[in-house]
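TL;DR need structure tokens for one chain.
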Amino acid sequence: MKKIIVSAGLATVSAVGLQAVEAPGLTRIQTAKWWSVSAALRGFYDGNPLAQHSSVDYDGSWGLEIIPSVAANFPKEQTYVGISLEYAGRWFENRSDNNWDHNLTTALKLDHKFSPRYEARMDEVFTWAQEPTVLERGGVITAPVQLRTETSGVRNRVGLGFTALLTEQLGVSLGFTHLWYDYFQDKEDVRADSWNGTQYVNPLGLGSLAAVLNRMEYYPNIDLRYQARENLVGLVGYQFGWVDYTSDDPLAGLQDPITGNVTLIPGSIRSYKTHYVYLGGEYALSSVLSTAVRLGASHTAFDDLTEADAWNPYVDGSVTYQYLPGSQVTAGVRYQPSVTDVSVPGLNIGSLRDVTAGSEAFVLYSQVSHRITPKLTGRVLGTLQHTKFNGGWYDGDVDWLFLAGVNCSYQFNQWWSAEVGYNYDRLDSDLGGRGFTRNRGYIGVRATY
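>> reply
TL;DR here they are.
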């Protein structure tokens, strides 16, 4: 069953290749034995390694990427256990301060069917990355720019689920998701920083990534499901969300116009709670075409910034069509409240109302995988994200983020393959000095055993 996605950063464990044993995502090598290892070597060119604004005189860089991974799968009659680890190291020839980027993802998945009526699930995904699209894979990209300033962050996601069939038609699904974000840029790293393209001396280290984005997120949910027909399920659900900002670093400084004294505003001032209610359904039009949708509303209440409390629509829909053997298209849409890396520019803000409390994110995504020949497969993917900022100096301003990629892989045999690809990233923003364009191309080989 498709699990609802209701928060920024939620990702499925399939991001690192852990699916149930019967899932088509497992290769013949993975199903033939309980373990597999893989390694890829790529040469690449990155036209804008730090995602800098066009007004900045930046240089592209050639580089090499190594991607070793290992996975183990233990399918039993009623239980499936999977574990995997993937590391991606990128070396940039034209980057003087730090030539290496490091991305690490580990995943653990456990499914157990107590009986045909009761099933429990658990998955855990840990990610350490310097690329926003890696750290926040599967969710809203909350820091499209700042994470590329040669810093990094970690995310840990734990998901628990339990499904029970109460009668032949009525079932219930319980879930809980916990996310932990920690960014390694603290106030000591931003003593001098750049705001909107102008050099700004920041003696207090205001607005570090830690202050802006370090947080815990908690999402318990319950769905009541009704099997109207063999291929149609209706549902009604509720989810509670709590986003708790955890950094002790100052988010901003509030200066008294008479005395000149500065009161530091902690990042925790943006903590909030959200209630989601929705109706939905899952419909299999045929064995190769299925769709799922959830429509509802969310209400967000801030602990301190009460003037930012708001109702928003909630939308999560997707369609999957396997139009040929080995060829599939997936598309979807999401609309939800989200966190953001945008806060305030620093000292001398007028009041707490000048703090950007959060954002609303509208996301369209699609992916096409087409088997051109038995050995040659092409993939095209795209994501369009519209983010509107709520509260503060940037209230009502928006970001448009577009991510696109094309990849072709040729399977020489079950152990060796070659791949070539291109990625295009573009951010258009109402905030000066924030937007960027980035082009990346790569070619390489992969070995799997």
